């Protein structure tokens, strides 16, 4: 209740309202960075809490466990907007070779640095199969659509690894537009109905 006078600097400051959404987002962002840098096994809840500027105990409250947090980070990091399949392969090839900048993709780094942990690998595999691979599978006609979708994702992941993580000079310098038809043809060969 206001007394009608302006608050003096000596008056106690009311406690700052906690913002659970902002805290949760800060933890997810910090966890994404830490998992990309260290992988699942080496990333610690305390490291993530410190990076997010929160008490590590809050992570348990919001995500249940390190595994729960990792699952949500994978959901975010593995979101895909690039479609592959008939009618999409030229743009996918161009996006991978020409439009992208050779900066490490955190989803790829999380996968590389966490794959040796059996549980982390299972979480990533389930996410890819349930989400991205299913969407690509739905775009493909004919037999073995799920297998062909997995191959498309594997080819594109390989290009991303060679270009964005390893910095292969043949995929980062020169006229990369000339390579687009080759990658497009590879993607077309996989996505075409046999």
Structure explained in plain terms:
- The protein has 194 residues and is an all-alpha fold.
- The chain has 10 helices and no strands.
- The protein has helices spanning 20-42, 45-52, 56-63, 66-77, 89-99, 106-114, 118-130, 132-139, 145-165, 180-191.
- Mean pLDDT is 88; it is low at 5-10 and 13-17.
- The longest helix is centred in the first third of the chain and has 23 residues, at 20-42.
- The radius of gyration is 22 Å and the shape is elongated.
Give the secondary structure arrangement, pairings included.
Elements: H1 20-42, H2 45-52, H3 56-63, H4 66-77, H5 89-99, H6 106-114, H7 118-130, H8 132-139, H9 145-165, H10 180-191
- Give the overall pLDDT as a whole number: 88
Number of helices: 10
- SSE order, as H and E? HHHHHHHHHH
How far do the termini sit from each other? Answer: 75 Å
Which value, in Å, is the CA radius of gyration? 22 Å
Structural class: mainly alpha
How many DSSP E strands?
0
Biggest sheet: strands, sense, closure? none
- Uncertain runs: 5-10, 13-17
- The helicity comes to 55-70%
Estimated share of beta-strand residues = under 5%
Shape: elongated
């Amino acid at each position: 209740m206001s007394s009608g006078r302006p608050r003096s600097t000596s008056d106690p400051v009311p406690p700052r309202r906690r913002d659970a959404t902002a805290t949760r987002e800060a933890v997810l962002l910090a966890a994404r960075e830490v998992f990309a840098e260290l992988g699942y096994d080496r990333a610690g809840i305390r490291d993530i809490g410190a990076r997010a500027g929160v008490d590590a105990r809050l992570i348990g409250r919001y995500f249940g466990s390190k595994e729960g947090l990792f699952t949500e980070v994978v959901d975010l990091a593995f979101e895909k907007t690039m479609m592959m399949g008939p009618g999409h392969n030229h743009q996918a090839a161009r996006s991978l070779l020409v439009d992208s900048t050779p900066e490490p993709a955190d989803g790829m780094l999380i996968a590389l640095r966490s794959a040796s942990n059996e549980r982390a690998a299972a979480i990533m595999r389930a996410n890819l199969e349930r989400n991205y691979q299913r969407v690509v599978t739905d775009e493909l006609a004919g037999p073995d659509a799920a297998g062909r979708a997995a191959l498309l994702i594997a080819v594109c992941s390989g290009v991303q690894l060679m270009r964005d993580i390893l910095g292969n000079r043949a995929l980062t310098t020169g006229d990369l537009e000339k390579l687009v038809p080759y990658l497009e043809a590879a993607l077309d060969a996989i996505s075409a109905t046999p």
